[in-house]
Amino acid sequence: MNRIHWRALTAGSLLLLAVLLISREADAREKSLQEQLVGSWTLVLVDNVLPDGKRVQLYGAEPQGLLMFDGQGRYSIQILRAGRARFASSDKSQGTPEENQATVRGTNSHFGRYSVNEKERTFTFHIDHASFPNWEGTEQRRTFTLTGDELTYLVPAPTTGGTGTVGEVKWRRAK
Predict the structure, then answer these.
(1) C-alpha radius of gyration, the chain, whole number
(2) For a 10 Å CB count at each end of the chain, is N or C smaller?
């Protein structure tokens, strides 16, 4: 009798889990791409892919970052190299040229508004301000894929790497 009860409980639990998973997938299909982007994302990788296929990890093997899309069309992105060296002085205005250079090369951030082209599966960052001043006031279009809790987009003209280099940035939905 006890064995039958556990089998029924197990079967019922598995059935409930299957229904929940199917329901979650159906919800994702019903939401627009823009609605699916809304939320917080943690950084997985930032690579430049050179014309010969070689990958360069711009922010190291374990880059740190946060990307946030809100429901009103605003976004904020921060990317940092893990393990950046601290400044010798506790005053950032007293940083040495080497410390300042390492900081600039080890960070990328910008914020502003975003828009999504559902048909082309692209979004565009409409950048208000950026740690790389050349991007301020520009629009940066990204082709993206969204698979479950993973967002990957391509940067067609990254700030480093030269002609023919493409950036690949991968994020995981924050839990």
Answers:
(1) 21
(2) N
H helices of 31-164, in order, are 33-37, 97-105
Q: How far apart are CA 16 and CA 86, in angstroms?
A: 51
The neighbour count for residue 47, using CB atoms within 10 Å, is: 19
| pLDDT tens string 48-97 | 999 999 999 999 999 999 999 999 999 999 999 999 989 999 899 999 99
Token look-up 């089998």 returns 7
3-class DSSP assignment, residue 106? coil
Cα-Cα end-to-end distance for the chain: 40
pTM above 0.70, yes or no: yes
Q: Are 147 and 164 in contact (CB under 8 A)?
A: no
Tokens 């690949």 -> residue: 168
